[in-house]
Amino acid sequence: MSLNGYHGSENDILIEIENRIAWITFNRPEALNAFGPAQFHRLADLLDGVSVNPDVGVVVLTGNGRAFSAGGDVREFTKKGLVDTGVYALRAMTSIRSCRKPVIAMVNGIAVGGGNELVIAADLAIAARSARLGQAGTMIGACPVLGGTNVLPLQIGEKRAKQIVFFSEKVPAEQAFEWGWVNAVVDDADLKSTTREWAERLLALHPQSLQIAKAGSNVWWNYSYDTMVNGLDMIAMGVPAESVDEGRDAFLAKRPADYSPWH
């Protein structure tokens, strides 16, 4: 699978439909389930497909291995790669919100950057006790404009969200639950069974009523959409390409980035 020069495989994201539950699994464990443009594109296509599939009533997003998703694939973060990743990520986030079926994030491990923004976009989120959630953009020359800067403040409060975004902080699942970031925290061994129970509860409810409830509850997301597009434009126009290279190289070398030339 190739997308405008970005490579991926259908195996990067798997789907299994079982008893009207679509389990969508991010399957790049060696890369902590990081996303490039090709992976976000496939996720959006899968979500758009299950949205109109009469054999699906609920969607679950999760990751294979020890991560839900580490977000954007930093290895592809040239300036162009960063912007392109954002464009395709916005399509995936929008597909979560426009999906006619409830979408549950089953947060099995670390959810950072764009991975955390997938959790923010999901209708419901259940986290394993070992999970951590947060952002990383300001460390590497990116910015979480697809949820972190606009929707997360609605979920946990403006000051808390700015702290997470400004300092690129990650918090334990229990803290995320107390703040309203996720709906529930369970022992790791109980994560899938609890998620299945929630999905089955949703399947027993009136489907059209759920669709209307979801559409109505999306009002704040819809209001935030223009700020997401504007945020991507600001990254494209306002972030020096060389600073993105420094952030990427520092991250991959596991050293502090030196942004002093751009102050």
TrEMBL record:
Keywords, comma-separated and alphabetical: Fatty acid metabolism, Lipid metabolism
Catalyses which reaction(s): a 4-saturated-(3S)-3-hydroxyacyl-CoA = a (3E)-enoyl-CoA + H2O; a (3S)-3-hydroxyacyl-CoA = a (2E)-enoyl-CoA + H2O
Domain of life of the organism encoding this protein: Bacteria
PANTHER family registered for this protein in UniProt: ENOYL-COA HYDRATASE, IP11341P-RELATED
Family: Belongs to the enoyl-CoA hydratase/isomerase family.
Keyword Lipid metabolism attached: yes
UniProt keyword Kinase present: no
Protein name according to UniProt: Dihydroxynaphthoic acid synthetase
GO biological process, one term: fatty acid metabolic process
Region forming the signal peptide: none
Protein purpose: Could possibly oxidize fatty acids using specific components.
Molecular-function GO terms, alphabetical: enoyl-CoA hydratase activity
